[in-house]
Amino acid sequence: MKQIANFIVNGKACELAIEPHMLLVEVLRDELGLTGTKQSCGIGHCGACTVLIDGIPTLSCLTPALTARGKNITTIEGLAEGTRLHPIQKAFIDYGAIQCGYCTPGMILSAKALLDRNPNPSREQVKQALSGNLCRCTGYVKIVDAVLAAAESMGKEASE
Amino acid sequence: MSQKLSVVGKRIIQPDAAAKATGAAMYASDLKMPGMLIGKVLRSPYPHAKIKRIGKSKAEKLPGVEAVITPEDVTQWKPFDRGLKDLPMIAGGYLVPPDEHILNERARHFGDAIAAVAAINEHIAEEALELIEVEYEELPFVIDPEEAMKPGAPQVSDVAEGNIGKHLSYPFPEGDVEKGFKEADCIVEGTFSTTKQEHCTAETAAAVAHLDVNGRINIWSQCQVAHMARREIAHIFNMPVSKVKLMTPLVGGGFGQRGSVCAEPICIALALKTGKPVKLEYTREENFTALESRTGFKYNLKIGFKQDGTLTAMQVYMLGRLGGYMGCGPMASVIGMVFGLGHYRCPNRAGEADMVMTNTPVSGAFRGFGNPAMMWGIEQLVDEAAEKLGMNPLKIRLKNIKKAGEIANMGLRLESTYLDECIKRGAEAIGWKEKWGKKKEGKMRRGVGIATMTHCSGAAPLYLDHSNAFIKLNEDGSADLTVHPAPLGQHIWGALSQIAAEELGILAEDIHIVTGDTDITLFEYGSDASRSTYAIGSATLIAAHQAKEQILERAAKMLGVSPDELEIKERQVYVKANPKKSIPVADVCYDAIYNFKGECLNISGKCSWEGRWNSSPTGAFFAEVEINTETGRVKVIKFVTAIDCGKAINPMTVEGQLEGGMQQGIGYGLTEDYIINKDTGVVESDNYDTYKMPGILDMPETEVVIIDKPDPKGPFGAKGVGEPGMVGVAPAIANAIYDAIGVRIKDLPITPEKVLKALGEKSQ
Amino acid sequence: MARLLKPFEYFEPRTVEEAVQLLSKYGHQAKVLAGGTDLLISMKKRKITPQYVVYIKSIPELDYIHYSQQAGLKIGALATHTAIADSAIIKDKFELLASACGKVGTPQVRNMGTIGGNICEGGPSQDSVPSLLVLEAKLKLISLHGERIVPIDEFFIAPFKTALQEAELLTEIQIPTPPPRSAGCYKWFTKITTVDESLAGVAVLMLLDSTDGICRDLKIGLCSVAPTPIRARRAEQVLRDKKIDNSLIERAARVAVEETSPRSRADYRKRMTGVLVREAISETWQKIRQLHLRERA
Predict the structure, then answer these.
(1) ipTM score here?
(2) Across residues C150-171, what is the average pLDDT?
(3) Element (H, E) at C108
C-alpha cells in the first residue's frame, strides 16, 4: 500500500505517495525524473547509483525509498547552482575525467562527500573515497587528478 | 608535414562533458515516452534445452501486461546474425549465416532468450516473467571447444556441422614456415590460453522502440555501427530500410560489445506486437550472459629466430570458443593472426584457426579483438627467445620491428611507425636500465617487463571501410557537421570538431555536431576498429576542405584577390602577403546565404570516404610488478604505455584511451575470469560480486608517452588509438613477472594460485 | 536477477519493544531491515521474499558507541561500519575491530551497513566477526520474553544460520576491555581485487608478560575459511604460556591451518590462512614489545 513520504531532494521539499518496495533509485529516476542517478549492477558493487543522504554516499539501488523519509537527498542534478557548475563538475570536465559518463554522477557525489569533510585530501585518500565507484573507461587516473584539482580550486575559492 | 596547427593538438573540452557532469545527459536507459511500456526477457537457465511448451496465459492475465511473446510469435520475422556479418563485406572473407531468431525454440546457451513481456511498468514486467511456464527438455551440452570438436559431441548450431563454426586461415601468409623453422637457430613454442573477458560497460544494453504514425520503426539503439544495425533491423522485420529510423543516444560504454545488435530485435518485436513504445533495458546479469564478450582462445604458437635474433618463422594454430551463436567471434582469430603474426618483420608466416560452437554465451568483439589474445603469447615467446639468445628484450624487438615503407600487417604499406621511439622512451619512463634483469631476493620481488604491439586505424582492407561527412557553414561562420560515429565516451565529437575547425580556420566550439539519426546522417560504417577519428576524421577533413575552398573563392572576390593568396585563421580570412587586409569568415558565409546578387550558396562540403590504406598505430607497454612469493599475489606498481598514434588530435583524449586500456588490460591479465560451471553450464560470474574488474585501488602509478609524430595518411597525421591501449598490457605484466621470479604463466588470468604453483615447480 | 523488489508490508517501529512485537507477530514471514546491503540483494535475487519488512534504523536508541574502562565497549547494533572504523575510542583501544570494519565492502556499503547486520547475516566471511571472536564479544538479544546474552562464539551455527531466534533482535554488542599490555590486529586477503570479499581473515589478540616475554593469552579468530567464522583454539594453545619465538609462531600457523575447512579454493585458502596467522601473530608480538618499551621509557 502506498505511503506518503516527504523528502528534501536537492534542497527542495517534495511529497510523494510510494509503495514500500520501491527503491530510492526508482523514485528518483521514474517518479522525479532525476535520471542522472544511474543503475548499473543492481547489487551495490559499482556505485553508479550513489546519492548523498544527509551528505553521506549511499547506494540508492539498495535503499527502499521509504527509509529515506525526511532526509536530505542530493543527486547529481543538485550540485550546480543554476548554470554555475560545482567545482568538482568543472574539474571533471576540464581534466578529461569523463568518458562515457555513466559512472560520473556517482563518482562526483562520492568526491563531494569526501571534499565536504576533508577539503585537502591526499591522492591516496581520494582513491579510498572513490573505491566504491567502478569505472570501465578512464583507468581512474584523470578522475583522481580532477578531484585533487577541485579540492585546490575550492580551497582557493574559500580563502578568497 | 610540418603544418602549424591551432586547434588540432589542443586539450579541448568535450561537447558532451557538461551534460554528463550534471546528470542532464540522456542515454537509452533514460529515455521515456508517453505510454511507454517496459520490456523484459525470459532467459534459459540451461545451457542447452528444447522448449517443449510455454504457458503464457497466466502472465497475459496479469493486469498491466500488454504482450507476452514466445518463439512461435516471432516466426514472421527473419532469423539474423547478431554480428552483422551476413553480408559479403569482408574482402575475400566469409559470411556468417543468420543463425539466431528473436526468440529461440532451442536454447543454445545459458541466458538465451526464450520469451519476452511488455508491461506498463518494470514491477509488473518482472512479475509476468515469473508467471510464464516453460517446460524444458534438457539436452546434452558442450562447454569446451576441444570436446565440441570430437565426433558425437552435442550439435550446438544448425549451421555449423561438427560444431566447426568457421575454419579460418591467416589471410596474409608468406614464405614457407617449414623452411623458416629449418633456418632457425632457436625455436620457441608454447600453448597459451586466454579468457572470455566481459566488457562491463557501465550502462547495460538498452533500447527504446516504437512504431510511429507513418508506420516506421523508430529505434533508439546503442549500436556502434548504426547504419548497419538499421539495415539488419529492416531485414529482420521485412521492412524497407527507409521505414527504419535509428537514433543513437549517448552510450554508456561500448568497447565492441555494441558492435552487434543487442536489445534491439526483442525490443522492436514487443513494440510491433503492442503498437506502443517499449523500453528494454538489460540487467547486469543479462549483459554478462545474453551479449557477446571477448573470445577465449587456446593456441599453439611457434616462433623461430636466427642466432642474431632475426625472426625466421612464425606459426600458430588457434582454437576459439564461439558460443551458442556465431556472432562476431570468428573474426577474432583473423584479427589476432593479422596483427600478431604481422607485427614483426618475418619472411615465413602461417596460421590456422578453428572457431568452435559451444553451449556458452556468445563471443565477439572487444577492444583489440583478437590482438590482445595473440600478443599474450607472442610477446612472451619473444622474451623467451631473447633469453635463450642472450639478448636484451628491448634489443630483440628493435631488431625485428618493421620500418616505414615495409608491408604492414594488412598487406598494405606501413605508412609511418615510431615503435622504436616508443620502446626507447617507454623504457626510460619505467627505468628499464636500472630495474631489468637484476637479481631478486626476499619475499617481495619486483620486476619489469615489456610488450609491443601494432593495431589498425580503421577496417580496410578487411572490411568495407566507408564513412561520410557533410558540413555546412551557417551565416555567422559557425558550422554544422553531420556525421554518425557512436558516442561511446571516446570523445569523438570533440576530435571531429577539431579536425573540421582546423581545416576551416575557425574554432572547435564553432562546430556543432549533427548526429545520431539515420534520417539525417549519411551512411556510416561506425565506431569500431579504432576508426572513428581516422576514417570519419578523413571524411570530415575532405568535406571541410571543400567548404573552405568555397569560402576562399567567395572571400577572394570580396577582397579582390585570388583564392590562393588567402588563408583562414581564427575565424578571419587574411591576405597572406598583407594580413591587414582581411574579412571575417562570418561575413563571407552571411554574404553567401543572403545574397541578392543572384549568387546564393550555402557553403558546404560532403565526402564519401572509403579507406584504401590503413595507418598502423604502434605502441610499447611497460609493467613494473611486485610479487609476494608467499601468497602469489601480483601487484602492478607502475605501468607505462608509449604510443605512436600519429598526431594526437587531443592529447587528453589519447591519454584517456590509454589509461582506460590499462585498466582493462590489467583486468584481462590479473583479475577478470568468466566462469562457466563445467557440470551445469551455468555462468557463475555474472555480476561484479563474482566477476572482478580492477577498481581504483588496483591501479598502479601510470604514465602515457605520446610520440606525437604525424602519419602521412591520417587526418592531420592522426592514427587510431581506441583499441591499442589494452593490447600489450597483459603480456607486459607476464614478462615483468618472469623478470621478478623467473616463472612464466601462459594461461589467463594470472591468479595467485598459478603463480605459487609455478614457483613450486621451479624450486623442485 | 530482478532489479526490483517484490511488494511487502513495511513497518518502522520506534522502539525495540515495538520491533520485537512485530517480529513475533509475523514470524518467519518478516525480515529485519537495517542497512540493507545484504538483505536487499537476497530479495532482488528472490532468495527471500519477505511479506513483512521491519525497518529498525527508525529506532533511535540502537545507534551508539559507548566506552568506559569498567563496562567496556558497548556498540549499538545499528552502528555503521564507517562509524566503528572512524571511532576514535575504537581505533585507540580496539584497533583490530576498527580495521576489520574499515575493510567491509565499499565506502558506501560501510556507510549503510551495520555491525548488527554483519553479525546476523551469519555468513562465513563476515569481516567484523573474527575480531569480535577474539575480543570475546557478547551479543544482547531481545525478544518479547526478555533479553539474553549470548557469547559470540556460540552464535554461529552453520553458514547463514545463527542462534538468533525468529522473533529476536540483536540490539547490542558488548566487548570487555582487553587487559593492559595486550594488543591485537586483523589481517586479511581479498579474493581477487583490493575491494572484494575476504578470501581469508585473521584476528589475533595477545597478552604478553613484559617481564619474562611469556604469552599469557592468545586468541585467534578466522573467517572465510570454514562454514562459519571460528576460533583456532588448538593454534592458540601452541603459544599460550610459552615464550614466543618465530618457530613457535610457525607452528601455531600450521595448526591453525589444520583447523580450517574451506570449501572453494581450499588449498589456497588454507595456505593463506597460514600466512595470515603467522603475520598477524608476528605483527601483534611486535606491537606489544613496542608497547612495553614505551612503558619502560
Answers:
(1) 0.98
(2) 96
(3) helix C107-112
